[in-house]
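During the second half of the funding period, the structural biology subgroup turned its attention to how the target accommodates small molecules. The most pressing case was adenosine monophosphate, which had performed well in the primary screen but for which no bound structure existed. We therefore specified the complex as follows and requested a full 3D prediction, including the ligand pose.
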Amino acid sequence: MIGHVTRCIPVDPCAPALDALQEAAECLKSGGLVAFPTETVYGLGGNALDGRAVQRIFEAKGRPATDPLIVHLPAVEALPMVVKSIPDVVSTLAEHFWPGPLTLILPRGEKVPLSVTAGLDTVAVRVPSHPVAQALLRVSGLAIAAPSANRFGGVSPTTAGHVLRDLEGRIDMVLDGGATPIGVESTVLDISTAVPRILRPGGVSREALEAVLGPVDLLERKASQEEAQASPGLLEKHYAPHHARLILVEIPQNEGLQEAFAHLVTQAEQSGARVGALIADEDLAWLETQFPAMARLALGSLNDPGTVARNLYAGMRAMDEAGMDVILVRDFGTAGLGLAIRDRLYRAASQIVRHIAQNGA
Ligand code: AMP
Ligand code: MG
């Protein structure tokens, strides 16, 4: 597989052509790997019930076998293909959130290889809404295992160009359906506990889940630097740029944010580092005044975390590719998709600044 030519086939994101879908479906049925757009990010798809195809997914990504995959289905009716039993709450959740960016942890069906679930007796399942993903699932008739289509540990891809940069020559095909609309991964929900628990915040907000389920817990994720302190050597960076160090500035007040940026920029530039900033639309004016020459990218308004989420990964990749050594990122709060944005920034960050004069920043 590795070393093959990767074919990139453009498709209409709203109405993909049948011949492209059939070709992709044949490839999957013969054990091949096809990347395709979902509403969250691009997925790296393989037949979930074919152990060899699953093995190839792990190889192409360089993903450790201990990290389980999400299985994609065309509709809730297909659940018996991959799960052993269906808890009652699933029909309510499916009615409200499927197709869409919600992944449920369910009892693993016997046909699902243990390699998919990293040996667990549960399997993560979701029904994606993107027309290309939907059509591919229906035309192929397969359950498709599909982690994000990037090298393990890197930033998830939101365009076919991102996929090719990471996996060219390592997968058979990419269906190019343009940029993905949500831009961060699905929400992973554990419904086996009395109070359902979000294992990973994502495209369905905690508020939306609580409107349907009542209270929902959140598995608190410590920032990677805090994890590193708790268990040095075990830190596994995720969602992180290849080259640049990402510094998250988690200071809500505007003056504090500006002061911290000023301090960090001076510090970085003194050591000869190139600094770029990922900021909100609302920051453009003061940034322009204080740092007219600094590379910057506004991801969206503070009132619109959906837009910020859509632009986040492309922004991180752009700064990395422009050769920045340090990327300063402002915090975007926790409302709506803000929670997913903060989770990803925590995982990507080398440093989090919460106070101005601590450790010199
Ligand atoms: P992705 O990298 O987007 O494919 O996300 C897969 C993630 O879903 C994993 O890294 C886990 O965090 C989560 N996941 C998948 N399967 C399970 C499972 N059986 N139990 C708990 N979490 C799971
Ligand atoms: Mg991933």
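Two results from this model are relevant to the next phase. Residues 97 and 204 are 8 Å apart (CA to CA). Residues 230-236 have pLDDT under 50 and may be disordered.
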